[in-house]
Amino acid sequence: MTPGEGRPEPASATGGGPGSLPSVCLIIPPSLFLLDERVFMALGILRVAAVLEAAGHRVEMLDLSGVENFEEIARLHARASRAAVFGLTSTTPQMPAAAKIARAIRAVRPDARLILGGPHVTLVSAARKGELRRQAPGRAEAGLRRLLAACDVLVAGDGERAIFAALAPGASGLIDADDPASPLFLTSRQLDELPFPARHLMDMASYNYAIDGVPAVSLIAQLGCPFNCGFCGGRQSPSLRRVRMRSVANIVREIVSLHRDYGFRGFMLYDDELNVNPHAVELMNAIAEAQRQEGADFHLRGFVKAELFTDELAEAMRRAGFRWILAGFESGSARILRNMNKKAALEENSRCVETARRHGLKVKALMSIGHPGETRETVLETKRWLFEVKPEDFDVTIITTYPGTPYYDLAVPHPQQPDVWVYTCADNGDRLYSRDIDFLEVADYYKGDPEGGYRSYVHTDGLSAEEIVSLRDAVERDARRQLDIPFASRGAAARFEHSMGQGLPASILRVSPARG
Ligand code: B12
Fold first, then answer.
1. Which of 25, 92, 384, 459 shows its CA 20 to 30 Å from the CA of 200?
2. Which residue's C-alpha comes closest to atom 5 of ligand 1?
3. 93 lines ligand 1 (CB under 6 A)
């Protein structure tokens, strides 16, 4: 078997010879609720893998996205693995699967250290800090305790330095890298000095994404969004909130290396919003220049904040190869936009679409329903707005109040109904009710199937949870018909038969190349 492919060497409690650095197995849990799990790879854990490799650790990357029998594979791999440490990443919707994986590893490798990082820990920890500031320990405190029972070490915030603290002898409990005062919190400058995500530990060919037919890969150029939308995770979390920028040269270097090493010409920039970066036009010009030097024609796609989108930027983006922009317009109702604290007015949203059109950019409109004060009428306003501005693509999701979102963090218990929490808009008293969820157990609150797979855990004074679901489905169906946009199709999850003595396929497991 060649280095980098699927068979780990036999298990050992220390993970290496005497004095050697422990081998680390990093795990991406499945996201069985996504239509297709192998579209965008989890870049955060690949950044952690890259620093580990650079420090001399041997890394096993177990990518369980799209793997139906993921628990079985995790158990069999953990038994055979020589890693002494297992590190999981997880968003909130991935948590039930991550918890099952953690249990499976613990059952067969009680000697191993289990580390959990990623957005869920970061957001629960941020929500808990808010509770502590208000001297009201509550759901987040309880949530964090459940996570601590499931894993040995939790990492909140940036993982690139914190992973070494998590590997230190005797480390346990919460390591808080989501604090600008901590040396573990990365500065913009440090982002430039770190290695690019270890994409060589992924089966790149198994990820399928294209921009107008050109095979594409995702990257993150800058971190953080300073806005305060009610539904968005991390508004109290510095690592998700503070804008941290890599230099233009560093971003272009990553793009060029993806072009040279893998042949990509398509790039999805997954920054929260490209245009909170004051150097956005400069970045576009540098990307255009890189194409000239490479003799290639790039296709790009990325997110913008609607009210900050200018003709100058649109023009520069088109010149850099952008074909598409995505914007979280969220609603066609002026009242709902105010209630969610979007900061963009309806007219600014419409103007953003017009600006994009003027410069030959297609628009994917990201819409959501289930905000405070949502009624049948406000949902219809959203539908009418879609009909009016005619985006080239759109989606409509139902709001989930994840920990770390203002809708969750600022909610209070319902005076009569147990398990229901209430968020109230300060200026007009509009309310959002949400059912409490055990995020470690419940997996069905988020489904990405646009043809009727949604479930709502929120309701308002005007709409029940069931009405929100049926209205969402109707908006999606009617708008697709009206705008002539077909439904996306669901990719099938794969089952892998795995027996002892037989390695996992490289689409699931890759190991750091042996050092010479
Ligand atoms: C790209 C992206 C996606 C992509 C790809 C996701 C993926 N596989 O990475 C797609 C489109 C699939 C997606 C979908 C969704 N997303 Co999304 N997405 C993002 C986005 C914009 C960037 C992610 C990223 O690469 N960040 C940069 C990297 C460097 O950060 P990171 O992943 O957090 O990793 C760092 C640390 O967390 C830590 N870390 C991570 N893993 C580990 C592991 C260990 C062992 C250690 C020690 C540390 C560690 O170290 C990393 C490096 O510093 C983020 C917002 C953001 N800015 O992060 C939202 C975000 C992650 N998404 C979010 C949401 C809500 C969703 C959806 C539910 C949206 C929806 N309604 O459809 C789905 C769910 C997907 C899922 N699998 O669970 C929320 C997560 C909320 C939550 N409570 O988990 C975020 C934070 C947006 C927000 N602000 O609300 N998303």
1. 92
2. 40
3. yes
